[in-house]
Specification:
The chain is of the alpha/beta class and 267 residues long. A 5-stranded parallel β-sheet has the order 2-3-6-1-7. A two-stranded antiparallel ribbon has the order 4-5.
C-alpha cells in the first residue's frame, strides 16, 4: 500500500490497522484510481487470515449467466459444459478473504442471491441441493454511491447493511496534495529501476507542476504519468516539460463563464 503523509491518509491508516484484525465486513469506496483493490490487499495482509487466500472477483466483468457458477460453483452435468464438479470463488476463499470489486455493478436480482449466501454462510453449487458451509471475510469496493442507489431502488438496502459493517472512503488525490510528491518519488524509483534510467531527480518546476495537477484519475493517473516521463526523459533530472498532462477539466461554473451570448464557447 502506498501510504502518504497527509493527515487524512494517516487517519485512514490508523482505522485500517484497527479493523483489519477483525472479521468485520468492509466496504471501500472512492473514485477510480484511488487504490481500492490495493487497500483490500493491505487489509488482508494485516488480518488474521493473511496465510489464507485472497480471492478477487470483478463484479463488473462477471456476466449474469455465469454469476452463480463463478461464485458458487457447479456440479458435473449442471449445464452443457459442466464436465466436472467445480468449486466457486466462495469455496476458494474459505478461511480467507473474498474481495468483490465493483459491487455496485451487480444487478438487483443477483443481489438477492448474494445476500442469501452472506446470511446463511453457505453456498449451494449450481445443479446441487447440498449446502456447503463457507467461512470468509468479505471486502467490497465501488466508485458508486450505494446509498443513492438504494434511494433509487437500484441496490438492496439489506445487502448494503450486510456489506457495510465498516465503511472506508479513500479521498481523491487532489484533496491530499501533500501526498503527490512522496508518491511520485516511489513511482520514480520503481520505473527508473525497470527502465534502467539510474537515479532520476525532479526539478523544482516539475514538482510544482505535479502538485498543481488535479489528478482526476488519482494515483493510477499519477503512476502512468511518471512511467511515461521516465521512458521519454534524456537526462538525470525530470523537468516540467517531461510530463505530458491533460488539460484541466473545467467546472460547470468555469464552462458557463466561457459561453458567449450566442451560447457558443469562446476560448
Amino acid at each position: 500500500m502506498f501510504w502518504g503523509d497527509s493527515a487524512v491518509i494517516q487517519q485512514l491508516r490508523s482505522l485500517i490497522e484497527k479493523v483489519a484484525v477483525t472479521d468485520a465486513n468492509i466496504l471501500i469506496t472512492g473514485e477510480n484510481g484511488t487504490g481500492k483493490e490495493m487497500l483490500a490487499r493491505e487489509i488482508h495482509l494485516l488480518s488474521n487470515r493473511r496465510k489464507q487466500a485472497l480471492i478477487t472477483v470483478d463484479m463488473g466483468a462477471t456476466t449474469e449467466t455465469l454469476f452463480e457458477s463463478e461464485l458458487f460453483g457447479h456440479v458435473k452435468g449442471a449445464f452443457t459444459d459442466a464436465r466436472t464438479d467445480r468449486p466457486g470463488k466462495f469455496e476458494a476463499a474459505d478461511k480467507g478473504t473474498l474481495f468483490l470489486d465493483e459491487i455496485g455493478n451487480l444487478s438487483y436480482h443477483l443481489q438477492a442471491k448474494l445476500l442469501t449466501v452472506l446470511q446463511q454462510r453457505s453456498i449451494v453449487r449450481v445443479g446441487s441441493n447440498t449446502p456447503i458451509p463457507v467461512n470468509i471475510r468479505l471486502i467490497c469496493a465501488t466508485n458508486r454511491d450505494l446509498q443513492e442507489m438504494v434511494d433509487k431502488e437500484h441496490f438492496r438496502e439489506d445487502l448494503l447493511y450486510r456489506i457495510n459493517t465498516i465503511h472506508i472512503e479513500i479521498p481523491p488525490l487532489r484533496e491530499r496534495s501533500e501526498d503527490i510528491i512522496p508518491l511520485t518519488e516511489i513511482f520514480l524509483t520503481h520505473y527508473s529501476n525497470i527502465y534502467g534510467k539510474g537515479n532520476l531527480k525532479l526539478s523544482a518546476a516539475a514538482r510544482e507542476k505535479l502538485r498543481q495537477q488535479p489528478w482526476y484519475g488519482n494515483i493510477r493517473e499519477l503512476q502512468h504519468t511518471i512511467e511515461k516521463a521516465v521512458i521519454i526523459c534524456d537526462s538525470t533530472t525530470l523537468n516540467e516539460n517531461d510530463f505530458i498532462l491533460p488539460r484541466k477539466k473545467r467546472t460547470k461554473h468555469e464552462r458557463r463563464d466561457h459561453l458567449g451570448r450566442d451560447g457558443i464557447q469562446h476560448d
